[in-house]
Amino acid sequence: MDQLVPVLLLAALFVLALAAMAWGWRRRGRSQSHLPAPEHAALAARGEEIAAGPFEAVYVDTVLADQPLERVVAHGLGQRARAAVSVGDGGSWRLEREGAADLTIPAPALAEVTSAPGMAGKFIGGDGLLVLRWRLGDQLLDTGLRLARRADHDLLLSRKEHA
């Protein structure tokens, strides 16, 4: 009986913490509702052939540009997933995500391809994440990808000359 009160208090604190996290996630989603829905069309629907890929990767998440801890949750962009990454001959990027909506970043929206040590949800160090900086509506975003093979990372990073 002496242990029942501390166990109940701990359980209540745990439930309260989960509720606060869910409330924060919904609040962030509402604050980002001004963002337009990203494009989901396949490269072929855009009139592009696959020039590179698909490459196996992990879609880490999308954050506000220059704010690596400010995750974008609107439209499922904050949902981590395994992905296949392809680049079209016109410069558009296609991210086919498992368990989440696919994402196409049109070439005109792509601002930069670079590397980073990490962002919200994944910190690797060095230049382990491939980061696509792109524009969705009037908002500049960074999308992080962790490629399965370093050679694929380097090849896609070299695509920045074509961005």
What descriptors fit this protein?
PH-domain like, 22% helix, alpha+beta, 2 domains, 163 residues, single chain, seven-stranded antiparallel β-sheet, 36% strand
- Compute the number of helices: 2
Q: Assess the beta-strand content as a share of residues.
A: 35-45%
Global Rg:
19 Å
- End-to-end gap: 66 Å
Instruction: Categorize the overall geometry.
Output: elongated
CATH H-level homologous superfamily name of the largest domain: Pleckstrin-homology domain (PH domain)/Phosphotyrosine-binding domain (PTB)
Q: Strands across the major sheet, in which order?
A: 4-3-2-1-9-8-5
Q: What is the tally of beta strands?
A: 9
CATH architecture of the largest domain: Roll
Helix content: 10-25%
CATH class of the largest domain: Mainly Beta
As for the CATH topology of the largest domain, it is PH-domain like
How confident is the prediction overall: mean pLDDT?
Answer: 81
Q: Pick out the low-confidence regions.
A: none
How can the largest sheet be summarized? 7 strands, antiparallel
The domain tally reads 2
- Along the chain, the helix and strand elements come as HEEEEEEEEEH
Secondary-structure-based class equals alpha+beta
